[in-house]
Specification:
CATH superfamily of the largest domain: Cupredoxins -  blue copper proteins
Helix content: under 10%
Shape: globular
Strand content: 35-45%
Mean pLDDT: 90
Distance between the termini: 43 Å
Largest sheet: 7 strands, mixed
Radius of gyration: 21 Å
CATH class of the largest domain: Mainly Beta
CATH topology of the largest domain: Immunoglobulin-like
Number of strands: 31
Length: 488
């Protein structure tokens, strides 16, 4: 299978010139003038947002979207766009069965809209790209949290602006828990760690530089807003929540000491069966929850989380875990085995294997770039807010065949459906591994791939987007709309 790194190697400068403007090519061939020794600054953990008030079944929050200054590099003030002044924004802790209401005030000079990625929410609170908050105005978003526990995230989604506004900082984590799952023997507290990864380019003054589609010249990887940080860990089992909030960067994570991950969750929550894995693929907007065992690592040594498909050597080592003391805790902890787990080895593991549904319709969507205009298209059409590309009766189950038609240019894509978690049936006629099957809301498409997904639209009524989550592609029209209507 052609991966992104292979595609870049095979792509010629002449082929790129057909697609990308001269300004972008010049930027792609330039070097980042700022250098910082790797693993010289500590990882920062985004603060947890506190409710302004609570009722018996609802938590209420206030957020302010505004331009602010943030110290990405030590001693350098970088202009960013933020939620509540954070880069990334504050983390919202939600619980299944308790609604969350967020009042978002837009203190920027441009419009903004907020999408809770992966959430089952009413259309009025989905953060539709054409439903922005005007500068100086506010909007109330209501999230019912009537879905399984999952690592979700929120971000700006204003059409034609989403790529740049997310790139400059408008994203944050939303961690949904389920009281039923609290009995699982998983690490918690300080051993449950959020890691948000993204690509960036900083100029000689430490300011973020945004050039659309400039995947070759974003040479800095930030983790929770910090470049190549270190994180001090104890000799314990850790739960890492990995979120790719990049516009364009693709990751294939591996631990430098060769240790395995135990993947326990995907985009939409816990896997049907945890999976022992040597590497974790994470494309833009995808999430994975993994357990990493530092108990056998000698104190005083370090382990690096690496991206083995990095396009440059300086982007290979992402974060360094510095292992200190602290042995096993009081309660028993899981062991990451050297063979695949089966569900019964973790008592109380939640069921994530819905019964097969009767498929009512199959649709086909082809993603490709127009080499003349540079516009990213779905079925040869750019986004039109007045057009509905799929009308779906409530309760229906559909199969969508997704085709990456950009094999000649070697351009990867992802597909994200709002509202639903779907099942990946197969890729190029072959079944996907279990850990990449369900629950998913974003799926990877290598150049030339044909991927079939199955989704059931049985929750909300209304109009929702679907789009490539390489956000620089979405802002250039690689987006459509589906509308769920009442069953006749």
């Amino acid at each position: 299978m052609l991966n992104r790194r292979d595609a870049i190697k095979l792509g010629s400068a002449a082929g790129m010139a057909l697609v990308f403007p001269t300004k972008q090519l010049a930027s792609a061939l330039s070097d980042d003038p700022l250098e910082l020794p790797p693993f010289s600054i500590p990882l920062s953990i985004p603060p947890v947002l506190k409710p302004t008030r609570r009722t018996g079944d609802t938590d209420f929050y206030d957020m302010r979207i505004a331009e602010s200054w943030h110290e990405i590099l030590p001693g350098v003030r970088t202009r960013t766009l933020t939620f509540n002044g954070g880069f990334p924004g504050p983390t919202v802790h939600a619980r299944r069965g308790r609604a969350v209401v967020v009042r978002q005030f837009n203190g920027m000079g441009s419009p903004a809209t907020v999408h809770l990625h992966g959430a089952n929410v009413p259309a009025s609170s989905d953060g539709h790209p054409m439903d922005p908050i005007a500068p100086g105005q506010s909007r109330v978003y209501r999230y019912p949290n009537d879905q399984p526990a999952a690592t979700l995230w929120y971000h700006d989604h204003t059409h034609h602006l989403e790529g740049e506004q997310v790139y400059r900082g408008l994203s944050g984590a939303y961690l949904l828990s389920d009281p039923v799952d609290a009995r699982l023997p998983l690490p918690g507290g300080e051993f449950d760690v959020l890691l948000m990864f993204r690509d960036a380019k900083l100029d000689g003054e430490g300011q973020l530089v945004f050039v659309p589609d400039d995947f070759m010249n974003r040479p800095t990887i930030l983790v929770n807003g910090r470049p190549q940080p270190y994180f001090e860990v104890k000799r314990r089992l850790y739960r890492l929540r990995l979120i790719n909030v990049s516009n364009l960067e693709v990751f294939k994570f591996r631990l430098s000491n060769g240790a395995r991950f135990l993947q326990i969750a995907s985009d939409g929550g816990f896997l049907r069966e945890p999976a022992v894995r040597q590497e974790i693929d994470l494309w833009p907007a995808e999430r994975a929850e993994v357990l990493v065992d530092f108990r056998s690592v000698p104190a005083g040594t370090s382990v690096e989380l690496q991206n083995v498909v990095a396009l440059s050597e300086n982007k290979r080592d992402i974060i360094q875990f510095r292992v200190g003391g602290g042995g096993p805790g009081d309660k028993p902890e899981l062991t990451i085995p050297g063979r695949p787990l089966v569900q019964t080895e973790i008592p109380g593991w939640p069921s994530r294997n819905p019964a097969p549904e009767r498929v009512s319709k199959t649709r086909r969507f082809i993603l490709r770039i127009d080499p003349v205009t540079g516009e990213f298209l779905i079925n040869d059409r750019g986004f039109d807010p007045n057009r509905v590309d799929a009308t779906i009766q409530h309760g229906s189950t559909e199969i969508w065949e997704l085709v990456n038609g950009d094999g000649a240019f070697g351009i990867p894509h992802t597909m994200h459906l709002h509202l639903v978690q779907f099942r990946v049936l197969d890729r190029n006629g072959k079944p996907e591994p279990g850990h990449d099957t369900y629950p998913k809301d974003t799926v990877r498409l290598n150049p030339g791939d044909v991927v079939r997904i199955q989704a059931t639209f049985d929750t909300q009524i209304g109009r929702y987007p679907f789009h490539c989550h390489f956000l620089d592609h979405a802002m250039h029209s690689m987006m459509g709309q589906f509308e769920v209507v009442p069953r006749r």
